[in-house]
């Protein structure tokens, strides 16, 4: 990432759950954060109306961020958002792609419209934001991108569309890491294992707590754990790291602990 005292950093899905923790952490570390989210409830998540709460949480810590409502699956909205950030701040140093939706179902339970929607948000959204910011990063001499993956990217039951989209994030991230190595743009993936988020709030909470707490620390992975990993990968301390998948939550990188283990 270009060496700026206050890097300008975009965070998608940055107003709820894991994304909010990332926004708060980066703001506290001196980033000029421009975060986006959608205010309406999305498939497979309890997240909604997060902008006001995120703004309040930032203010309580003595920080601020530029918060906007952006549908990352909409190319025109993404382009307008990035253009606005560049007009106000003059550069973009980093990007965190966290926005995602999480419907359940196997392929026979997933209609074509739902499949297209999941791929549009979870995979095309990463493509659109990266395509929009990489020219600015290249012109500035470098940057850093962190995409939020999932252990489902190696396949998990009852998550056909979600697994396919997250598998695509792994492949796209690796391709971009190679393609933009000479541009000094680093691209890495963080995999949250069983983390409290809008996605997990809708499920069987006691079962989630029991399974997700089977980690090295014996506790559930918190959004702050993911935010800490993202902040590290964006920092100069990770200047020599690109094309890496960082597992936060113990064994998520391998697809997660078997449910009956």
CA-based gyration radius: 17 Å
Briefly note the CATH topology name.
Answer: Rossmann fold
- Major β-sheet, in short? 7 strands, parallel
Under the CATH scheme, the architecture is 3-Layer(aba) Sandwich
Mean pLDDT: 89
Number of helices: 7
Poorly predicted runs of 5 or more residues:
none
> How are helices and strands ordered from N to C?
EHEHEHEHEHEHHE
Structural class of the secondary structure composition? alpha/beta
What count of structural domains? Answer: 1
Characterise the protein shown here.
The model has no long low-confidence stretch (mean pLDDT 89). The relative contact order is 0.16. This protein has one domain: NAD(P)-binding Rossmann-like Domain (Rossmann fold, 3-Layer(aba) Sandwich). The protein is α/β, with parallel strands linked by helices and 261 residues long. The protein contains seven helices and seven strands. The N and C termini lie far apart (41 Å). 41% of the residues lie in helices and 14% in strands. Strands 3-2-1-4-5-6-7 form a seven-stranded parallel β-sheet, with helices on both faces. It is globular.
Spell out the key features of this protein.
261 residues; alpha/beta; Rossmann fold; 7-stranded parallel beta sheet; 7 helices; globular
Topology:
Layout: E1 8-12, H1 17-28, E2 32-37, H2 50-60, E3 66-69, H3 75-89, E4 94-97, H4 112-140, E5 143-148, H5 160-179, E6 185-192, H6 205-212, H7 223-234, E7 245-248
Helix pairs in contact: 1-2, 1-7, 3-4, 4-5
